[in-house]
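=== RUN LOG ===
request id: a7f3
mode: sequence -> structure
chains: 1
length: 276
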Amino acid sequence: MANNNLFDSIPSGIIPQQWCNLPYLHILDLANNNISGAIPNCLHDLTSLVYDESSMAATLFGEKRYAEQTTLMDKGGEREYGNNLIYIYIYINIIDLSRNNLIGEIPEVITSLIQLIALNFSWNQLTGSIPKKIGNITGLERLDLSNNNLSGPIPKSISSLNFLSHLNLSHNNLSERILSRNQLQTLDDSSIYADNPLLCGFLLPTKCPGDEDHTSNSSTSGGGGSEDNGAKNDNEMLWFYVSMGSGFLVGLCGVCFTLWIKESWRQVYFRFVGIA
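=== RESULT ===
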């Protein structure tokens, strides 16, 4: 953990509330332990993750580099941050509590840590919903809440995370429609939402309620129009032939009737036919 004198890990137990009183903490990495209990509700006291200290640090200390190295889980793999990668005025703000036995809900105060770039609560036993104001963490690049028992809809505010490049919400009990706007349009991997039986819509084979009716109505409307046009054309052709046949019959009857009542015309006609 950066800017502190903490050593070793916490193999078991809970996260101490006292750790919220570490104003210079930038990396809280407790992954792969046996930590239980709830996520502390005082994380907003980690002021270095709430306020932008970079400009002040650069002014006071200049381009001082860190001497130590840090290895963090990033997008499923490990990434090293060393003395040539982190400047004192460019902070890497990360919370990684993955692969523990944490229970309870994700505290809403997590959304006040607007300087975070990575948040990983995966592989725990968290319940409840994703905080509605998760979009307040505007600089968030990586968010992994997979393999928990989270429920409810995906908050609309998550679509406002314009720097989000890695998202994993799989293996939960999330429900309702998947968002497909803004930055989320670029994250078009269906595995992001895998094993959430109640999710529907974009990228998933499960259609949301109303989608089937819309598709059906569109198909019916399109198909019905073609059938109506075909029937209309058939009727027009039928009436054309009926009219033509009727006209021919009326004309023939008229000629025959005229020849029947006009003997002089009849003689002329027979004489003409005989000559022909």
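=== NOTES ===
The chain has two domains: 12-209, 212-275.
The longest helix spans residues 211-261.
=== END ===
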